[in-house]
Structures are given as structure tokens and as C-alpha cells.
């Protein structure tokens, strides 16, 4: 199962400001923050973060670098390193290149983390800014390696001399990282080499004097072999406490990021930034990293568990065991049917307040449905729901 060892609450100076005129040609900053984070299938965790960065601009080129370390209350440390270059060959065009690396443990980037690169191109036409992006990343978690890439386009409008900003963006991404996808409710409806996702995002921001507020809303759906949906939102605010200190607060639920290997999570965080010359416009990003487990002395990779309200799925390569646990009244009749046994209903055994059934599944894609007292068939909570063969719903399980 995907673990969440740390959260980094990073606050970046916006790209337009990096490449435009600023109070000085160089800028340093220090961030101290903390957050509470909860993934869909895990408990709430507390994390603290410490970061520092340096920005330098010369003519129409700007370079920024940042490092950040996070420590979770019940897990290990993690670190992130980012380098960004912004190029303005002409006043109406800007190119951003981001290179980042994350790792478990406070060490230099190694085999247990993520490496990614993102290219963004912006074009300004009066009060409108158009953008296109492409990114690719590779994530390693012990013996499990995965990759993802994404393509996007967006538009942003400035209203009332930049006081209001309204934007929208579209993105299609591809990934073979089943750890990220299953933790966010996306599954494969059939055996396929990768997940395909479509995202739609809307953004509204407002700035006046020392106060800046930003709200974002996003929708994600699986495409083709990928099934399931997800949504996310973010509300953040920054206020200048003094000429050198800015307070940032935010809350929301982020999408799983297939390029940077970031899992889906709900979070609430606060951070304080200190820098000699305060930037007018801020933007926020959230980063986490995860790990997986392997059996000591065994060469077979253990596929991460899936844990939900009603399921526990444990897998190794080629075989999986799933335990279904349904809460129902003592006299209830609880039944289970699967595509493996041609949808023949099986009655679950009662164990205390739960009705329990354990299944062993071979490699492949399987569908599982449950019902109580002859009601409609549904997917056990914790599995991505899809249509069954009889007009009802079933949950998808993939055994590699």
C-alpha cells in the first residue's frame, strides 16, 4: 500500500515575476511550515517542512533553485530538490523549464524517489495568457519502478489591471504507476500496460495590497482501460505580515501527480516565508513521496496492498488474496459474486458484527460485487466501481 512518509509545503515565487523586473537581481528565502495530510485509504498524518531557495536574474533569463526537507510524525524523512529556468526572449513569450528530484531520507537523489522534468511555454496576448506544457518523470520505490508523462494546455485572463485572474486548463496523462492510481480510486477495467487520465481544471485568484487568495477546482476521469473518477480542490491565501515575512495557509485535496509521483491526499497546511524583498504573487505546490515493501531475502516483488472500508487486497506477482468484510444486521443475508465464478452468488459467513469472505485470485482482471438482503449489486467500498454484466455495479481487482 502506498505510504505517506512526508509532506512538503513549498511556496514558489511565480514564474512571471522571476523573469520580470524585481527589487534586486538576486533573492533568497527560507520557508518553515507544517501540515496535516490524509490519503483516501490511510489515517491523518502530521508533517513539518523546512526549505530554502535562491533566485538570480540577468537580463531576460532567471534561474531559481530550492531544497526542502520534510519529516512526518510517524514515518521517515524525505527531501526535494528543484531547479527552474525562465527565459523571456521577447516580451510576449516565456519558457519555463523545471527539473526536480525527490527522495526518501535526507540524502541526495538516488534510486528510491522521483526524477522529473517539465517544460512550459507561455504566450501573452493583451490580457490573456495561453500556455502549453509537457512533462515526464520516473519514480522508484525500492524494487518497483514506474514512469509517467503528461501533456497540457491552458488559458488565463487578467481582469481589472491584474487584480483578478481567471484560468482553465486541460491535461492528458499516462502512467503505469498502479500504486498512485489505486490509492486515488482509479483502476484498470482490463489488462493494459498503462493508465490514461483526462483532467479539467478551473482557477480563480484575487490580489489586493498585501493579500492574495487563490481557489482551484479539478476533475479527473479514467479513459479507455482506466476506470474511475477523482476530483480535487485547493484554497490558499497569502498575506504580507511585513516587508520581509509572508504567511501562507491552504487546504484542499490534490490529484495524484503521475509525473512527480505524488499521491492523492487531502491536506491542511500553514507556512511562513522570510525573504529580504517580498514577492507580490505567490503560488503553492504540495509534494509527497512513498515507499513499498519487499520480503527479506525473496526476489519476488510484493505488490502494494489495497485497503478500504470493506476490502483488504494482498498481492504478489501472479496471485492475490482479497478479504471482503461487510457490516450488516445479524439476521441479514450478505452475498458475493465474482466474474471468476460466472457470477454465482456465495453467502458470506458471519463473524461478530461483520460478514466475511476470503478469495484467492489468479493473475488477470477480476470484478467483484456484493449485496445485502437481495438488494442491488454494488462494488465493495475500496475498489473502483464499474458496470457488471447485469445492470449493476462491481469492483475491479487487477492481479499482475
Q: What's the topology here?
A:
Layout lengths: L5 E8 L1 H4 L7 E13 L6 E14 L2 E12 L4 E14 L2 E12 L8 E13 L2 E14 L2 E16 L4 E12 L2 H6 L3 E2 L6 E14 L2 E13 L2 E2 L1 E12 L4 E10 L10 E10 L7 E8 L12 E6 L3 E6 L2 E9 L6 E5 L7 E2 L1 E3 L2 E9 L1 E9 L12 E3 L5 E7 L1
Antiparallel strand pairs: 1-18, 2-3, 2-17, 3-4, 4-5, 5-6, 6-7, 7-8, 8-9, 9-10, 10-12, 11-14, 12-13, 13-15, 15-16, 16-17, 19-20, 20-21, 21-25, 22-23, 22-26, 24-25, 26-28, 27-28
Which terms would index this structure?
400 residues; mainly beta; Immunoglobulin-like; 14-stranded antiparallel beta barrel; five-stranded antiparallel beta sheet; elongated; disordered N terminus
SSE arrangement, N to C: EHEEEEEEEEEHEEEEEEEEEEEEEEEEEE
Widest sheet: strand order?
2-3-4-5-6-7-8-9-10-12-13-15-16-17
Task: Report the biggest beta sheet as strand number plus sense, adding barrel if it closes.
Answer: 14 strands, antiparallel, barrel
The general outline is elongated
Alpha-beta classification: mainly beta
Straight-line N-to-C gap: 15 Å
Query: What is the CATH topology of the largest domain?
Result: Porin
Describe this structure in words.
- This protein is mostly beta strands and 400 residues long.
- The chain has two domains: 6-289, Porin; 302-399, Immunoglobulin-like, CATH 2.60.40.10.
- Helix content is 2%, strand content 64%.
- It is built from two helices and 28 strands.
- The protein has helices at 15-18, 178-183, and strands at 6-13, 26-38, 45-58, 61-72, 77-90, 93-104, 113-125, 128-141, 144-159, 164-175, 187-188, 195-208, 211-223, 226-227, 229-240, 245-254, 265-274, 282-289, 302-307, 311-316, 319-327, 334-338, 346-347, 349-351, 354-362, 364-372, 385-387, 393-399.
- The strands form five sheets. It has a 14-stranded antiparallel beta barrel.
- A hairpin with a 2-residue loop joins β12 (195-208) and β13 (211-223).
- The longest helix is centred in the middle third of the chain and has 6 residues, at 178-183.
